[in-house]
Structure formats: C-alpha cells, structure tokens
Amino acid sequence: SALPSVARAVRVRIVALAGVLALAVVALAGSAVVAARPMAERVIQPETRSRDVMLCLDVSGSMTDVDAEVLELFSRLAEDFEGERVGLTIFNSSPVQVFPLTDDYAFVREHLDSIRASFDYIEDVPEFWVGTLNGPGASLVGDGLAACALGFDNPDQERSRSIILATDNEVNGAETVTLEEAGAYAASLGVRVYAIDPVTEGSETGAALKAMAEGTGGRYYGLHDTTTVAGIVEEVHAQDAAVLRGQPRIVKVDAPGAWPVVIAVAAFALVLVGWRMRV
Questions:
Q1: pTM attached to this predicted model
Q2: What is the rounded CA–CA span in Å between residue 125 and residue 69?
Q3: Neighbours of 237 (CB within 10 A)
Q4: What is the mean pLDDT of residues 121-144?
Q5: pLDDT classification of 134: cutoffs 50, 70, 90
Q6: CA–CA separation, 95 vs 118, rounded Å?
Q7: CA distance between the termini of the chain
Q8: Which residues contact 276 (CB under 8 A, 6 or more apart)?
C-alpha cells in the first residue's frame, strides 16, 4: 500500500518541477522583453497660451545692487508661468534684446542664471551687456521700455501682451522717448506694463512709474513686497488667452505592456511552489 503513495508523491513532485520550470521560462522571457525596452509611437500636440511676457531690466549703475535680486524674481516668475512665451530685454543708455519670446523655460532659466552670474564681473564687461552703452547717459528708461514694447511679434494676432519692467527710474541723460510716451505707446499696442521698483514707495520717481503702469492697465509693485510675484502672475493669468496647438509630432515611449505584471505573478508563483515543495 506504500508503493502507490510513493508513486503519487513522485508524480506530484514531477508536476511541481515542471511548473517551476515553466514559471521560470515565463519570468525569463518577460524579463528579456522588458530589458529590450519595447517602444511605441505616440502623437503629441504641444499646447501654448496666447500670452506673451517681456521681461525688461534696467542694468544701469544705480541698479547694480539689486539687479541680481530682480533676476531671481524673474526666475521665480518664469517658474509660475505655464505656456506663456517669455522674452528678455536689458537696457542702460541703449537697449539690447537678450532673447526673444520663447516658451522654452529651460532656455529662459539658463539665460537668467547666466546673466545673474555676470553681475560678479570685475574688469571685463559681461557679454550680455555689450550694446547697452552705445550712447550718452544712463538708465534711459523711456527708450528701454519702448524697445521692450517693440519686442512683441505677430502684431496681427490676438494675444495678451505684458511687460514686467524693473527699474529705479533714475534717468541720467536725454531720452529719445520719455517714460510717459513709452507707456502710451505700449498701451496703444495693447501691452500692459507691470513696474517693479526697488526704491521705497513714495518717491517721485516711483510715483511716475506707478502712473505710467496704471495708465497701461498694469500695476506698480515694490521689489520687496511679499505679494509681488503672486500678484504679477495672477494679473497675467487673469488676461484672456486662447489655447494654441502646435505642430503634431511623433515621440517614442516605453511600451512594456503587461509583462511587468506577468513577471511579478510568475515570481510570486515560483516562491509559492518552491515553499510547497519543501513542505
């Protein structure tokens, strides 16, 4: 009577070993498939917002102590934007466009960081500043603001346009365009100006900045106001903007399918069968 029991136990063990072998084959095959990183093609269509924001920075001597702080603020603003195009123009006695409007935020952050680092120069004028000293005078804010207003492309498109102007408005020299005239020109283009002033509020120069900004439909902020970043972002986002779809493009993505689940189930079954065989 013992022989049938032994034969049955042998058959069960053979079946169990066959099951272990099958599970091992399945797990190895699944691992090979996953390791080969099967790919699938997916069509994506990037979206942008029809909002343009031009950062406008005074790099004159009177702003030296605060420009690095302003650029840090610009970086924080860029982090909070989503889909807006951002550009940067700097000025002293003459304006220079550092980069045109773009929605490549990695590119924007890289250039803002590079400019911030350039303020540590000792002798050589930083490359970003070349062209900002092409005339007499310094901190010609009206000329700088007018250049920023000219930095918007596609004038025939319905887009929300804003300038974030950081300056102490300490003009030294004869401007081709005054601050009031530049503000009026920006307003005629439908551009709102948000002024950031590092000087304590209540100064005569600050009052002129505030009047100009509010005349365009924008607002005036102090550099160290706790609501400056949130306020500007909220103001920009409050402006109507349509979602624009870019050109469709094909991207390749990992497509492991159900193999990770199959591998996990096979591994669990192997452990369970192995434990049962030992018992």
A1: 0.67
A2: 19
A3: 15
A4: 80
A5: confident
A6: 17
A7: 23
A8: 16
Q: Is residue 2 within a helix (H) or strand (E), and if so which, with residue range? A: helix 2-35
Kindly report, residue by residue over 229-242, the tens digit of the pLDDT.
788 888 887 875 54
Confidence band of 164 (pLDDT split at 50, 70, 90):
very high
Reply yes or no on whether the pLDDT at 87 is more than 90. Answer: yes
- Beta strands 160-166 and 47-49, pairing class: unpaired
Query: Cα–Cα–Cα angle for 79, 199, 209, nearest 5°?
Result: 80
Residue 93 has pLDDT above 60, yes or no: yes
Question: How confident is the model at residue 278, as a pLDDT?
Answer: 58
Q: Tokens in use for 222?
A: 């102090």
Give the pairing type, strands 85-91 and 95-102. antiparallel
How far apart, in whole angstroms, are the C-alpha atoms of residue 62 and residue 39?
56
Residues with Cβ within 8 Å of residue 203, at least 6 apart in sequence: none
> Under 8 Å CB-to-CB from 179, ≥6 apart: which residues?
141, 142, 145, 169, 171, 208, 209, 212
**Which of the four pLDDT bands, split at 50, 70 and 90, describes residue 36?**
low
CA distances from 276 to 15, 20, 25, 270, 273 (A): 12, 11, 19, 10, 5
Length of the chain: 279
Answer yes or no: are the C-beta atoms of 162 and 218 closer than 8 Å: yes
Whether 87 contacts 167, CB under 8 Å: no
Helix or strand run (H / E) with residue 260: helix 259-278
